[in-house]
Amino acid sequence: MLINREIVLQQDIGLNGTLFGGDMMASMDKASGIFACLLSRNDRFLTLKVSELMFHSPVRAGEIIELNGRLGHKGHTSLSVLLEVKVYNPVSNHRRDVTSGEFVMVAVDGENRPEPILWRVDMVQAAQETTEE
What pTM, to 2 d.p., does this model score? Predict the structure, then answer.
């Protein structure tokens, strides 16, 4: 399921002429939180764990990145988001792999204590149908 698209700006570029890895990780973390909120009626999630990220392709200024999520583990208070990032070229409609990772998100209340996830069955089903296409 497409979660977000972002254009990479010159201000996001490091000395090597590519996007900072930490900025990519921050975008992925935000996308995972958005994905968790889309699949539930909870409005607060914290990141519990991030799997290893391997960067396959550099991202340069002016390129558009797409952040796509799939639901991994579905728990009582947590879920895992399988996130893939690709560069998207709207002119050629071509995509290339950039990185992927698993983000474990925990639903929390106003005091940051774990709370049960209130699943939106329709959105979970839509996310699964998007994955199967």
Answer: 0.93
